[in-house]
Amino acid sequence: MPDSSQALPDIPMAPASQDLTPLNTLGLSAYASAFVSLDSPSRLEQVSEFAGRYPGLLVLGGGSNLVLPPRVDSLVARVAFTGVRLLEARPDAWIIEAGAGENWHGFVSACVAQGWDGLENLALIPGTVGAAPVQNIGAYGVELADRFLGLTAWNVRQRRLVDMDAAACRYAYRDSLFKHDAPGAWIIVAVRFALPRPWRAVLDYPDLQRHPGLAGQAPSARAVFDAVCDIRRAKLPDPAVIGNAGSFFKNPLVDAATRDALAARHPGLVSYVQPDGRYKLAAGWLIDQCGWKGRHLGAAGVHDRQALVLVNRGGATAADIMALAAAIQRDVAGRYQVMLEPEPVVWRDGPAPPA
After folding, report:
1. CA angle (231 as vertex; 190, 178 as ends), nearest 5
2. DSSP letter string over 176-230?
């Protein structure tokens, strides 16, 4: 990974057109008029130079958290920085760095294989290492922010590499600085993790407590990894089989009074208390109770096993997906007075960061 104190050499690069259909997990038909692949940090300077010539800059990772229109006139920069290395074996933590273009699940699997435990609850989440801090991914009781040490990112406007800690990234539930700054303002190059020593299994979620592979023992990280993979495969569709972006809506956070009032009116309400006293409502349960599981509007549908997942049944467009999402939002708001917020980025061409 690059040293942020070093100057970057100029290597010629020219944008070219690109079919983005296989590069987004929803499988939406999309085409970019200008596309570059960033396989070396030496190309970052030229991305900054090119960005001002286009309506915007779309930084593309695994395309797993993205709703694309049929045509993208912005410059699309696909992050392909790779490499995983142990930076330090501290008494309290393994310090690991990974290139932003590494496949997230592959990275988690490699860490478990090396005995660098602590990410196993985040197994099988689609996308790349570089996308994980943007979304502040989380699953089964572990958030990325719990294991995050720092990252190196390219500031497109200022044309320089910046090292950022957790405070600078401004993490919140499925949120970060990178979701609030202008799209394309940052390109994440490498991410660093502090994986705890000694390690302990995080088994707070009922799904994990019920899994037969974890019953009646002090499980290994490998056992937790395998259990998480089993659970996710049973609940969530494979994007290679049917296009989807994983969980389409965030689990809404409400105060205790709102949760209590909802629970009184709707027995069986699924909610989880948070450290700050608020409650996280299960968006999938809300959608299911409104009768959306397995339904569809044209080519866009709701998965028949997991109401939180919207799917491309074949030939769906961004407009189809968003029309279905809006219909679900209206029904949930009408019944529960809670507005669901989409997780994926819905791309619309807009101004690029000033060059």
Report:
1. 30
2. -GGGTSPTTSEEEEEEEEEEESS------SHHHHH-GGGTTS---HHHHHHHHHH
C-beta separation of 96 from 57 below 8 A: no
Return the residue matching tokens 């779309």: 58
CA angle 63/94/60 to nearest 5° reads 10
Which positions are annotated as active-site residues? 174, 247, 343
Contact 325, 310 (CB under 8 A): yes
Strand partners, 247: 309
The sign one gets for the Cα dihedral 24, 238, 80, 98 is positive
Single pTM value for the model: 0.88
* pLDDT tens for the 355 residues of the chain, in order: 544 434 444 556 778 999 999 999 999 999 999 999 999 998 999 999 999 899 999 999 999 999 999 999 999 999 999 999 999 999 999 999 999 999 999 999 999 999 999 999 999 999 999 999 999 999 999 999 999 999 999 999 999 999 999 999 999 988 899 988 888 999 999 999 999 999 999 998 889 999 998 987 789 999 999 999 999 999 889 998 999 999 999 999 999 999 999 999 999 999 999 989 999 999 999 999 999 999 999 999 999 999 999 999 999 999 999 999 999 999 999 999 999 999 999 998 765 544 4
Q: How far is CA 353 from CA 9, 57, 187, 260, in A?
A: 22, 8, 12, 44
Cα separations in angstroms, 286 against 159, 326, 333: 45, 14, 10
Helix/strand/coil for 136: coil
Q: Please state, in angstroms and as integers, the Cα–Cα distance from residue 88 to each residue in 116, 151, 330, following that order.
A: 11, 15, 50
Burial class of residue 288 (count of CB atoms within 10 Å of its CB; 0-12, 13-18, 19+)? middle
Per this entry, what is the length of the chain?
355
Residue 85 near residue 97 (C-beta atoms within 8 A):
yes
Q: Which helix (H) or strand (E) holds 48?
A: helix 44-51
